[in-house]
Amino acid sequence: MPTRPKHFLQFKDFSLDEFFWLFERTRWIKERFKRYELYQPLRDRTLAMVFEKASTRTRVSFEAGMNQLGGIAINLNRGDTQLSRGEPIEDLARVISRMVDVVMIRTFEQSIIERFAAHSRVPVINGLTNEYHPCQILADIYTYIEQRGSIAGKTVAWIGDSNNVCYTWLQAAEILDFTVHLSSPPGYEVDAARAAVRDVRRYKTFTDPMEACRAVDLVTTDVWTSMGFETENDARRRAFEDWQVDAAMMREARHDALFMHCLPAHRGEEVAAEVIDGPQSVVWDEAENRLHAQKALLEYVVCGRVAV
Ligand code: CP
Ligand code: NVA
Questions:
Q1: Which domains are present in the chain?
Q2: Which one of 125, 139, 141, 214 is least enclosed by Cβ atoms within 10 Å?
């Protein structure tokens, strides 16, 4: 019997031990890459990438990463596939998973990627859904560790929309043992049932974003309107006005607090230019680390724990 493929559909699909492994492999792979040393465990392997939404970072980091590991990546935009003419996602999964070794999907509802994974012979990686963005938080936490050491016991402030990135931070907090302070405008708060966090100490909600930032180790935010919700743009712009991460909010955080944003960012909306372009911001390292962390992830889901 073939073993079940190792899917990464949401952050909680992996254990603490697996994350420690991935962070260590990320460090090792990044160091070798920086020394221009060839490392190609995925020679002759193929990644298929299915994009139903736009992307810059996810597309480039997966494609470049797969090439650097010795494999190739095939990019499929929805409009270019038979999905756009009604082919069921289950059939797409059955077909492409007979031809490639690993699949990355960016799509709308989580149920779409779950249906794909249920019919896939090979590992499936979530490259963003409406509900989660696990590859982003993998890279973000690696970035935190790189800058400050372990994230266990630390506090992260999430300011703004309770979106896919936010819910992934909540899943990560439970596994990696840190706390999230959440502040969102009325009507956009985290849904406790959806967050499904068993340990109530893992997150705390604040009506005042300044208070949410008080004495935290990391402040992070994201766009006010995520992909797929564009019709709500005007209403959201009005509702989120007081939830811009600015210098005053950063002053509430610890003096050595970091600022992160998954990007793309809108300066003057969810973040002030002086913050994202300021000394506490690590957004460019964060973006770069998508490459290294996802190379570790690809190696792990395709080859398992390689001998080191
Ligand atoms: N952060 C992120 O996933 O960026 P892209 O939408 O450009 O892939
Ligand atoms: N929350 C954003 C993240 C983009 C990388 C979105 O879903 O559009």
A1: 11-133+289-303 (3.40.50.1370), 135-286 (3.40.50.1370)
A2: 214
